[in-house]
Predict the structure.
Amino acid sequence: MAINYPELADQWDEDGCYQSPSALHGWLTGYVATGGRLTPETWLQEAADYLEIDAITDALRPQLLAFYEDVTVAMGAEDMAFEVLLPDDEEADIDEQVECLAQWSKGFLDGFGASGKVSGTPDKDVLEVLQHLDAFSQASLEGADANDPENQQLLNELAEHARVAALTVFYAFNTPAPATNDKTLH
């Protein structure tokens, strides 16, 4: 993934963004997963609204445009290398990582709804993963031992589940481009 979480987090702090990079990544992933696409200017306005900032600064603008490009490319990549954007254990303690997963999951659901592309009840598999992401949006380590090494393993498993959930939704709403056949028959 080309997105650098620490750089984004620093810029977010500098610009007074209310939502985390994980939350915005989740929002954009949910939006794109439904088949929604945005022009660069519309994306920047949506990002500003979701981040609850008045304007996109000159420093934040290229980061957000690269952010959009990275998500849309990664979601549709054949290698399915899409990743949920979370700080790693060198950047944040386990409490913050779990909080970011919860924010990502809520963001995904917000973006899913904001796209306006889904009408009616989604199919069974999509509905199931949306329910899982709703549960993940409530995740916390409250009352748990933050130093328990099993917490990192559990976080990794939940992040992988969220990744697969996002791809499940993406493949349900985005039909792959037809294969082109360069051979002409005469």
About this structure: The chain has a mean pLDDT of 89.
